[in-house]
Amino acid sequence: MAPLVRYPVYIIPDKGTSQGDGFTDAEIGSIAGTVREWNTVGQKLFGHDLFRLGPPGAVPEGLRNGDPHDCRQSIGDQTRFYVVRETNTDRWAALGFNASIPGATIRCSAGAELSQQVIYLNPNLVNANQFSSVVLHELGHAAGLDHSCMSGAGKPDYVGCDKIKPGHPYQLAVMFPSLTRGNESVDPEIKDTLKPNDSERTQCLYNPQQ
Questions:
Q1: Whole-model pTM?
Q2: What is the CATH number of the domain that holds 13?
Q3: Residue 162 has what DSSP assignment?
């Protein structure tokens, strides 16, 4: 995935519509915490913040009702992107996401360079204490990181998650492709701090000479 071209990138969280569905104060606080987490890594690795969180703003209608994969529509640019909150089941499905996807990052590129992106979040699909974990993961995609492993058996240049044992650095990483929601016998999985594998892969993406 392409790294950020300019940083810090300005994040505009969804303030909702007349029907509601904007981020709650608690959710905004969680987003702010994940921004700080990524910025700590950015400052440590190359002396810059990756993101800057702005106040909630109005989301373009096309991001709610259009095709998020249609890169012909203007959904932001290299300097800013929206984080959209959507909890309506039908609208979430219409965007192309199912109930196993609590968050998604859509990126558009011009050649090998990132041109614009947007993050979608559905807090209803995870436990409240997992929301930060989902946001932290999606901000990793926004920064340019792919998953730590590839679903399934993988391929020669991309290790498959099926080959990863519990406790492996790829499995512990925030960028592992799945998060256990939990049930009566299993606690919800929490990954609200970046792991060494996440930091190492960020360094490889932005500062490969070190």
A1: 0.95
A2: 3.40.390
A3: G
